[in-house]
Amino acid sequence: MTLLEGKNAIVYGGGGRIGAAVATAFAAEGATVHLAGRTVARLEEVADRIRAAGGSVSTAEVDALDERSVDEHADAVAAAGTLDVSFNLIAHGDVQGTPLVEMSVEDYERPVHTAVRTQFLTARAAARHMIKQGSGAILLFGGDGEPVREFSVGGLQVAFHALEAMRRQLAAELGPHGIRTVTLRTGGIPETLPEGYAGRRELEENIAAKTMLGRAATLADVGAVAAFVASDRARSMTASTVNVSCGALVD
């Protein structure tokens, strides 16, 4: 039996590289994956690959920053069965590579506002149905950590710290209802860097050099770990972070 057989999983931002990798892994482990995002064409590209591999998938245009859009989609998924997994992987609109002293307040604030709002909306929508079921898993991506010295990341780390505070509170309130909350952390995934990014090679080497395994985590690595964490095999895991950094991050 596969890890997620019979489960329904929503992946917000399913058209992005990380979202697609997670959705593909969920489907390969037997879940019916519900891809949600603002660009349907990108979602359909991912869905076509999942269907070609024999997976079950649906797509929906959802603005993960809009309360009504999120709630209506979650209600529709739950109405067809259960809502077992929610993973929000939308982009936060962060600006990187610009020192803080040169950054506009709008660019600094954007990832914080975006991350907090979207995660609250999607976690709340999922939890309302999971409470009725007495089970479920809400996954987050990012995690807090030490300041980044080698590269300017703007407000991204602040956003991650805010999400971790939310995750801890969600774990405390939702745990009695059988709902787990877990964050996946990486030390950077080179595959997510734009092909034309000027400092790509240098950044790739920098990420790999910091790891204990001598390599960076791949998108496939993240997908495989996410599928395990979302499954009942990980039913004792909550209020925690999972390190998917090849040893770049030391807990």
From TrEMBL:
<dbReference type="InterPro" id="IPR036291">
    <property type="entry name" value="NAD(P)-bd_dom_sf"/>
</dbReference>
<dbReference type="Pfam" id="PF13561">
    <property type="entry name" value="adh_short_C2"/>
</dbReference>
<protein>
    <submittedName>
        <fullName>SDR family oxidoreductase</fullName>
    </submittedName>
</protein>
<comment type="similarity">
    <text>Belongs to the short-chain dehydrogenases/reductases (SDR) family.</text>
</comment>
<dbReference type="GO" id="GO:0016491">
    <property type="term" value="F:oxidoreductase activity"/>
</dbReference>
<keyword id="KW-0560">Oxidoreductase</keyword>
<dbReference type="InterPro" id="IPR002347">
    <property type="entry name" value="SDR_fam"/>
</dbReference>
